[in-house]
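Below sits the subject:

***
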Amino acid sequence: MKLSVKKKYRWKRKLKRYRHMFQVYALYILFLLLALVFLPIIMGLTFQIAFVVLALLYLAFTRRTILDKFSWFIMILILPFFGAFIFALIGTTQLKSRVFSRKMMADKRYRLQYKDQITNEMIGHNLLGHFSTGAALFSEGNQIKCMVGMDVYNALLEDIKRAKSSIHIEMYITRLDEVTLPLFDILKKKARSGVDVRFLGDIVGHLFLRDSEIEALIDSGVEFTFFNQRKGRYLDHFHVNHRKAIIIDGSIGYCGGYNLGREYIYGYEKKKLQWFDAMFRIEGSGVSGLQMTFLLDWCFSTSYILLDSKKMALAFFPKVPIKVENGITQMLVEGPDCEKTALKELLRKLIVRAKKRIYITTPYLIPTEDIMADLKLAAHLGIDVRIIIPGVPDKKMVYRCSESYIESFLEAGVKIYKMDGYFVHSKLYLFDDDISVFGTMNLDMRSLFLNFEQAIVQYQDKQLNIEISALFESLFDRSTQLVYNNWKNRPWHQKFQEILLRIFAPLF
């Protein structure tokens, strides 16, 4: 009898978790059929023309730069009705909705209330050339280590085993396999022992995580929820929560390209796809930025305010001694809950101030026109600009769209490398010898305009820059540099595919 009751409650939890997603996707399918099949037939050409004109006018008067609007204009003009419909469905979600505006205002209040615990504003004001926004948090004395392969999981498991008060996980994708199974086992043990374990996942990225494992986590005491799942709220799946962070006791944090799954170490055997990624372990007061982002996203998704007392605030933001003498850390978040396109503006500022070199790894090379122009100008000025992209794709259409940008970059003097036999998933940026950027942000339209993202900028940390520089050099050795004349003579059908898919760049 007890078992059947338990199963009954489990099914209720499952339905609660997924019903919003099923409702929204059913609505999208019905809307698609209505807009693309029935309405054009019923209303005829006049309706289609009016719909396209309305979409163009709406796009023209939105508060976005001409360069940001350009790709949408091209799509609507080349594929009139379909392009206008896609813009209405996806492009308009790039504007701030009421839900995200309310989150933005709430986040501001909490950041202001706890600013003494999470940021040192004097560091930011004294830092030459820094980019400041309300969500930019500064700290110093953090020990940051770049990690790859199984070293990430080995260090993470050891840190979680030593957790005493809280373990917070915010993840885009989670899978249950031989790599993550030990992690789940430790999380369950820690939850049973009284440690507060909270897990916040994106609903789209967790579609393939077995319900039985989610239920096992919940039964052991882990608080598990999906991002933006509060009752009665419209669920916008085009704004995915792409943030990836693990915070332990408020003093140790992990941030980077890793999701939870074996492919981030071993790749996909069925696709014969090898994988390269990087994760960063942070110890020090800079972890408070990751912690604050998690707490704000948790509150947004559950309506449960974890920062409602000074006692809890002290537990989440403990005073951490300085680990190293040099290095200034700045954490930035990006998404529909932010006033500015902070990460885009940060990249542009760092590109413009670079004097010696700009090294980038990105899985998808679909930049905005202004970032592309900045990188090309830097190359024209003699700066060593190098970009590493995957040698093999995980998504063929997106990969071909990325390739459509290569010829223009090569012609301007930007050096493009393809990592032989690997899909590069790391998001790394190195500027000169004193600034490095890492986090969850790809160099594509989705990361810059649609997704919830986070990035960490490390200034004046020579040791970390030496490590990242050495990593880049090893990647260059394992990659093939593209030559302009050879690339220009690629097959005509590839060029045609690139031109066609370039139209859909705003979707990627």
